[in-house]
Amino acid sequence: MKRFLLALAALWALSGCQTLQQIDKGLYQVADVVSEEDRVTGQRSLSFAGRAEQIAKGNQYVEQILAKEKKEGRKVDAALNRPQYYRLVRVFDRIHTVSHLSNERWQPVLIDRDSFNAFTTGGTYIVVHLGLMEQLKNDDELAAVIGHEIAHTVANHVFERQSHAQVSAIAGSKSARKGAYQAAFTHESEREADRIGILYSALAGFDPLAASRIWARQYTLQGNARALFAHDHPVNAERQAETAKVGQAVKPYYAPGERNPQYASLLKNNVLWQQGESAQAGEGGGLQALLGTAFGAYVQHEQAKQEARRQQAHANFVKAIETRLKLEQSSAPDAKTLDTQWRYSDGPRLTQVVIGLLIQKGEKVLRAVAHVDGEVRAGSRFQARFTLPEGITAQELKSLEGRFYLDDALPVQ
Ligand SMILES: [Zn+2]
User: Fold this and answer.
1) Residue 139 alpha carbon to ligand 1 centre in Å
2) How far is the CA of 193 from the centre of ligand 1 (A)?
3) For residue 285, what is the enclosing H or E element?
4) How far is the CA of 119 from the centre of ligand 1 (A)?
5) What does the DSSP 8-state code read for residue 269?
């Protein structure tokens, strides 16, 4: 933002004594300093680093990670897991070929972590945890994740955002605390990366509905954790609904296992966005470019603020409802199941109620959720059934510390 203000100051200095046409050219140059043509929509977005600089910086982060893995004796890529690495390369190549950055040489990196995670640092690598490869059911789902990660770099989301947090988490330095606003800003980036990534999937011949299936499964397993922590991604249920919508929209471009022969033109114009003709420098294009940048940044800022308010309001609603729920009884019909009965004292009629359970086992905190069927009225009782997480039995539960929480609930409109 600071550099953007500097550019405005430069513009002020320029505007003194020139003809309108010259000013417009000057404007265009200023706009080129602070922005680059958005590779997806043709609109301009704020960006300061040139692509070469982005690649150098982004790749440097990944090389740091690789050096650290080596130092600590962990294997990467084929040495870590040959079949999973070749599977990754195969799916990656198909997606990358139909992406907006197919002219660059990219490569995936497989690292030895058991978590469900993949990330990009804005250069020409994407880093994938082995745990993600093992948990994803099929190549369509893997394509959804890879498409999403490439899209973050294509849409220029990367620099101040996830890469720093991700890299510091892995490289071991302290990660910055995230405020609600920053989390909300990331929400918008996540939605955009989902949209672009799902289009890539369809164009490369992978099922564009696979992304929504991943989020459906995450919702079943984890709920939304609405009030548990600030979200830097859309919550699972929302993400499922949004990715399903996008998946349906781009489905006409998809033939299983086949690259769409029109993929190059579809990257520019498709059901999700149209790349408009932009005016040239000297014909009002300069002004348009600069206004586009300032306005785009303003709109993004406003959207992020709105999203932050919406998330906060919903989290507060969930916390308030939580105080009106009372656990009346619980029982374990078998070793892996916990049945609970609740009473909801007062408040609006609720739907999509999910109850969560946090269990402390040694160092680890394990989480289970129970999805409540149908609607819950004030003054009524309802049942919630938990399937206990891996490594915990109902018998053990009695001697462990646990806490129930309201994961999510929506008022019936
Ligand atoms: Zn993302």
Assistant:
1) 18
2) 6
3) helix 285-322
4) 7
5) B
**240 CA from centroid of ligand 1 (Å):** 14
Distance 360 CA to ligand 1 centre (A): 29
Cα distance between residue 266 and residue 251, in whole Å: 13
* Domains identified in the chain and CATH numbers: 38-276 (no CATH), 323-411 (2.60.40.1620)
Query: pLDDT (tens digit, 9 = 90+) per residue, 197-238?
Result: 999 999 999 999 999 999 999 899 889 888 777 666 778 899
What's the 146 CA to ligand 1 centre distance in angstroms? 10
Structure tokens at 136: 């994803």
DSSP codes joined into one string, 158-220 = TTTTHHHHHHHHHH-SPPPPPPHHHHHHHHHHHHHHHHHHHHHHHHHTS-TTHHHHHHHHHHH
CA distance 394 to 309: 39
Residue 179 φ/ψ, nearest 5 degrees: -85, 170
Helix, strand, coil % (nearest 5) of the chain?
A: 50, 20, 30
How many angstroms separate the most distant Cα atoms in the chain?
84
Checking if the pLDDT of 375 tops 50, the result is: yes
- Count other Cβ atoms within 10 Å, centred on residue 285: 18
- Compute the distance from residue 233 Cα to the ligand 1 centre, in Å: 7
- State in Å: Cα 152 to ligand 1 middle: 7
User: Would the pLDDT of 173 be above 50?
Assistant: no
